[in-house]
Amino acid sequence: MKKNIIIILTIVVLAAIGVTLGFIFMKRGNEDSLKFKEEYESLNGVEKSSGGSYRSLNISEDNPIVYADVAKILEVIDNEDAIIYIGANWCPWCRLAVPVLLDTAKKMNVEKIYYLNLDDIKSLFEIKDGEVKQTREGTTDYYKLLDKLDKELQPYTLTDDEGKEYDVGEKRIYQPFVLGVKNGSVVKSHTGTTDLDEGQTVTDDMTEKQYNELQGIYEDIIGKALEKHSCKEGENCD
Prior knowledge:
The chain is α/β, with parallel strands linked by helices and about 240 residues long.
C-alpha cells in the first residue's frame, strides 16, 4: 500500500513539473512573439534619416518568433531541424519580407522561427582615403557563425561615391537571411526578397507575383528543413 502511494505521488509530482515547464515555455514564446511585434511595429511610419519613412507592419501576437543569440543559433544549426531568420527592424528589405515569412509559417503550421539580430556583434567597415578601414571587430561567436555559414554567404563589398567597389576581405550575412537547417547542416537559404520591377523601390508594396514567388521560396525552405507541406484551405496539417 505504501509503495503504491509513493508511486502515485511520484506520478503527480512529475505531471506537475511537466505542466509547469510547459507553462514556462508557452509564456516565453508569447513574450518573444509580443516583443517581436512591438519591435517591428515601433518603426511604423517613422521618418528615416535618409528620407522617407519606414513601412508600416501589422504583426500577429501569436507569431512563432523565438529570440536567440549567436551561441544559440550555432547550437540550433548543429542539433535541430529548424527555421532561422536573421534581420533587423530598421532593414527595409526585412520589413518587406517578414509578413511573407510569417504568413508562410502560419500556412505551414511552423511552431518556431529563431530570430537573430546581428546589429551589436557584427564587424563594421568604411572606406576612407581610398582604403577599407575596419571600425569595429565582430565578436568571436559572430566569426564562428560566418565560418559555419560560409557556403551560403557572399563576399562583403563596399562601394564609394564614385562607384568603385572594395572587397573587405570577409563574407557577409546580408539581410533578410532565412535558412532551414536539418541534421546539422543548412538545407536551403535565401537572402533578400525578390527582384524589383523597373521603377519599383523597396518602400513599394510587392506585386502579387513577387509575393507568391517569395512565399514559394519560403515554402521550399520550410519543406526541406521541417518536412512540412503547404496546407490547403480546409485541410488539417497538424
